[in-house]
Design brief:
Blueprint lengths: L1 H20 L7 H13 L1 H16 L1
Helix pairs in contact: 1-2, 1-3, 2-3
């Protein structure tokens, strides 16, 4: 069960990173890289923060 939760978190992180780099707004590549690293290392918390807070601000 723990492995399923882990892999779902990884998949969500990958989706968020893809969504982050597919935005057309010029927010700066260093900021996007920092957010991508945080999403990768903090998959569940990073996904929630990105989806509910940062996604609207970056698009």
């Amino acid at each position: 069960m723990v492995q399923i939760v882990y892999w779902v978190g990884v998949a969500l992180s990958v989706w968020c990173i893809y969504d982050l780099f597919s935005t057309k707004k010029e927010t700066g590549m260093p900021l996007k890289i920092v957010i991508a690293v945080l999403l990768f290392f903090f998959s569940w918390i990073g996904t929630v923060v990105y989806y509910f807070i940062l996604r609207d601000k970056l698009k």
